[in-house]
Amino acid sequence: MAWIQLRINTHAQRAESVGDQLAELGAQAVTFTDAKDTPWYEPKPGEVQLWPDTQVVGLFDANEDMQPILRQVQGALPENTLIKLDPLEDKDWEREWMDNFHPVRFGKRLWICPSWRDVPDPGAVNVMLDPGLAFGTGTHPTTALCLRWLDGLDLTKCTVVDFGCGSGILGIAALKLGAARVIGIDIDPQAIQASAENARRNSVAEQIELYLPEQQPALNADIVVANILAGPLRELRQVITDYCRPGTMLALSGILKEQAEDISNLYSKDFDMDAIAIEGDWARVSGKRKA
After folding, report:
1. Does 143 count as an annotated binding residue?
2. How far apart are the first and last CA of the chain?
3. pLDDT tens column, 120-134
4. pLDDT in tens, 72-123
5. 99 is in an annotated binding site
6. Can you tell me where the transmembrane regions are (predicted)?
């Protein structure tokens, strides 16, 4: 089926009302994207965050008469608002989406593979993971930084805490790399569900325990990884530190590179910190709990 997309550049304060108007005018779907390449990370569950300069995109049937829709949209917006109409090619969008995902290698041993692709190296450590609702498929630099860190450790018989587990990718990778036990913690029940399903698909469900924060038991671990946000990493420093006994290895990500030094300094009270790892605009901070 062929489509037309109507793109409108506006401010965050106006974006939701513009989206509501497009839906009322017959848009089959409405999405919000960044109009000016502003770094942004996933919001907390239930929280709606929009970029200061937001592009609202309405998807319409190609047979729709767009002129009356354009007149109504233009009448509700300032005169200098950027509005564009673009035809979309008629293609198999599901196949197009699937073709964008390929097996990816992290470090020396670890591969993340979507289920519809052949495993490149059957003898490697392969985690089968499809893109889904919960964050974490290995494609984002913050996840990649953590996966490479895990690949470089000897996880044999280790207990690992995956704080902010999302899809479960880090905990599942740790188990596949030799960890004995993983405790996954997330504030989003949907993430807990996704982690459990992905653990079953990778035959590690019996080795992973999943908790909402209010349900988690008291625990210490050999390895702790938290791929969340700089703000929560600051606020929850003591919670994360308390998971770590002397000698525990810690990795923190979800951090913009300009935030990394501040996070490293904050945790240096209790940890001997490593050099900061950078990938693109993102960073990973890691260290070892002091005796």
Report:
1. yes
2. 63
3. 888 898 988 876 544
4. 999 988 888 889 988 876 665 555 555 667 788 899 999 888 877 888 888 8
5. no
6. none
